[in-house]
Model the fold of this input.
Amino acid sequence: MARVTTIAHPNIALVKYWGKRDVPLNLPAVPSLSLTLGGWRSRTSVTWGAPADRVVLDGTERHDAKVLRFLDLVAPDRPPCEVVSDNDFPTGAGLASSASGFAALALAATRAAGLDLPLPALSALARQGSGSACRSLFGGYVRWPLGEAPDGSDCHAVPIAPADHWDLRMVVAVVASGPKAVGSTEGMERSRRTSPLWRTWVEHGPADVAEASAAIQQRDLERLGTVMEASTFRMHATMHTAVPPLLYWLPATVAALHEVFALRARGVGAWATMDAGPQVKVLCEPSDVAAVQEALKPTALQLHVHGPGGPARVVDDA
Ligand code: PMV
Done:
């Protein structure tokens, strides 16, 4: 019996992943690029060899078929295992808990099974739990290219700059609590099948990633913020034009967006992004955090400020 505990941080896409060219393998239709956030984390313990399969998430035991299937990928002939995981931030609310959760699980499960996979293979494995999880194995600024191999073996994330390359801030405005109404896989498939904007969305992906990568190398926030917002709004346009439409935004989401635009009109360098949920995340320089917080206070239930975070890591190895 081996028990390994790991932590991984969530990541927020600066250029978005939305759509799969292969659903079971989680192969993306578009490349993406993200920032791993310090501060929040998933902590996951895997015991390889337990009396029975058991999954405990945020203190509640549940039958989680996705987690058990993921363990089968690590080793099809595995023994019964115990997985205990918790997040120190809201789960399933568009705050990337599946990204940090499956990144922490991939590292903990492989190590508990006695495997020491190279990072690209570990990232490709995490991808099969949740696409965006492949990016949370790495710290800082991370790219997830399309890959070419039909089995997905070359479809893994690649770090492009470490956390200390550029000390940006992401101000997270939680405007609603509770889990999202439509999960990301269903949302992506609905957008792909029914949105007339789908092709335009897919065509822009590679250029958006190239633009964001160049902006990160040059530490040009206006350039990065501009492409992040463009990618965000193009992604949400495929949701809004799906049939039936997908609208993750709430009135408070729109109010927060207008606050960000008003900040920019006043010369504050702040750009917004949203994922498959109502929360608004604002990218800015550390020196502008106070102005961003002040502007978002009336519309947000909670405000959290995160800088770039580090890679997933083992914290206990018994
Ligand atoms: O990894 P998933 O299946 O939870 O999808 C994440 C999709 C977005 O968060 C909306 C965008 C992204 O790139 O993280």
